[in-house]
Amino acid sequence: MKLNLWKLAANNIRSRRTRSWLTILGVLIGVTAVVALMSIGSGVEQAVLQQFEDIGYDILIVTPTGDEGSSIAATRNAMMAGMGTEMRGSMRPATEMDTETSGGIFDPSAIGQSSDSQGTGEDSTVAGQMPFAFSAENVDPERLVSMVPDVVQAGNYTTAVMGVEGPGASGFLRVSTPSASFLQDFPSFLGGWKLADGSGFTDVGINQVVVGARSADNLGVNVGDALIIRDERFVVSGILAPSGVAEEGVESAGEPQTGLARSGNTVLTGGRSTTILTGLTNTDDALFVLEERAAELWDDLGVATTIVRVAQGADIDASRNSIETAMSAVGTGVSVISVAEMAGSIQSTLGLIETVLACIAAVALLVGAVGLMNTMYTAVLERRQEIGILKAVGATDGQVLTLFLIDSGLMGLVGGVLGLGIGAVLSFVGARFVGPMLGVTTFSPLFSAGLIFGVLAFSFILGGISGAWPAWRGSRLNPVEALASE
Amino acid sequence: MLVLEEVHKTYHMGETEVHALRGVDLTIEDESFVVVMGPSGSGKSTLMHLVGCLDTPTKGHVIYDGADLGALSSRQRANYRADQVGFVFQKFNLVGTLTALENVELPLLLQDAPAGVARDKAAHALESVGLKSRMKHRPSKLSGGEQQRVAIARALVNEPRWILADEPTGNLDTTTGEYILGLLEGFVGEDRSVMLVTHNPEIAKIADVLVEICDGQIESLTKKSVKQVVTS
Ligand SMILES: Nc1ncnc2c1ncn2[C@@H]1O[C@H](COP(=O)(O)OP(=O)(O)OP(=O)(O)O)[C@@H](O)[C@H]1O
Ligand SMILES: [Mg+2]
After folding, report:
1. Beta bridge partners of B194
2. What is the ipTM of this complex?
């Protein structure tokens, strides 16, 4: 019997082919939206969290605040809000950079950097916007390790934007100065410090530079080539492998920045997420000079960010407090933020975005459901006579109800299956575009079994629910009146 | 045995009430060929619907083999329609999206008959009305007479005790109509009865029971077997 009702329902769908397909299309669009948005959402979240995991949850980032402790909170807020001006390396004239400070790019590697004051007056505006870039004293990593028991490793890291002349192009780029021990202790902080070419730093005594993948491209340098950084001649001793972090709209010299890519970036991510995740592991647009070397050449590198690794199993919050207390005791106000904290903050932001996306998708699905209900309502009206016939030959109210429920459920299910397929295709295509916009190139949408079966079950049930009221009305029709209708 | 006691049926159309039946008393033995005649709007169809349990009386009782049909639940009434009666309507009332065979299978499958059994019985029923070669046709591809034969096959496929035919020849030409009436007449037999609404006085002559109805009341009841005419 059940089988026959299925057949009858399928028959009805087929006999009203165009309308059925249009109805299914409505459901399909909703399901597609849900599948695409949800899978991309969870894919992005996973990719982002992976980046933090790669860096390590045992890492704390310590930033001197200048005056003792009073601005700790302000600084941390500033960091979390991504107020730090976008200071990533740029191959464009500095004046253009100034117009771009609204991006809200937070870049930990840019913390504590000073701008290149050599002949670029425009940069001072940028530096002026850094709330923590004044008169702060560097944290002494060794002292920090000895003072705070939980801290097992610490290293300093400075970033400055400097004028760089390469064989192919020249411009202002971010120059980071990790120490040799920093490279050993915190490679994860520099995207794993994977060299694509060359051997890295081999001699503290000579001017060696390791160039990020994209910078190398833009500057047109290979290992062994010479580069002029702030009037000093450097030899390229290594080129880093691409970090997998997407290009943040950095083009080669002279190429104008497209406003679209930029705004897409901000709109989709709310600024904060992009910045942290690109900032932490994006080595592509930077140049690296050993701190030991840089300190000899330049004395205005600015305040260093101190990266700290705490002992395994240590309480991160307690460690943070100990660091703050210890540093404040020696007269250095610091602000400490943990990678876990950043991840948490990003996760909650992403969670919010995912919720918003899910709501949008839900609205699309709701529209589909209303369309389905409309179709079923019309179908019941049109099929009054058929209902009368069925009842005259012995169908119970329940059978008529079931027939229509199957009918609408089937349309829901077909919409669900097709929506799942199209949504999957769309999300893989979408990931190609969304990934780069979010700053993650190595990202694919995530399809959990829960999502797939959930969507299928949900769309069938949605179909049933949408059809329930029309079906119930149909099942309660008086057979004589139903037969009398044309 | 079918007994109608003081049966009333009133339809409400907004403010106005239509008294389709007003006090019908009728007793019909099993294995009867009942013909119902009367002018248009006299309540013939209404009477059929009550006997077939498609509708319930406003007042009075329709009692079939001792059971008051008006007291049945919706489900029991559906089962009664499935088991005890088969309807044949003036406008055929076939499901347009199903083939002739599928239309005839429908009552069986609604009763949870196995698909194979249903198919065989339906094919046999269609054969008995001379439609063996039209089984895969949709109603729209069949002539009026053929459609009505499909409807008759559908009505008798469940082996009901009653076939209720409401002007089954109304939309057919005389020859086809006579063939249809012949089929119905042939159905009457062992524990099988037919109630036929018609305007054809020729048919009335061969009826076991002739019910003449006017204005919702029985005007005259003629029972052939007892050769007795009751005039109200
Ligand atoms: N569903 C309904 N709602 C309102 N009035 C109805 C309804 N069905 C029948 N009637 C009215 O009840 C009366 C009897 O109708 P019925 O269909 O039984 O007549 P009939 O004898 O079958 O007529 P015909 O020969 O034209 O088929 C008519 O006046 C009709 O208008
Ligand atoms: Mg009638």
Report:
1. B33, B163
2. 0.93
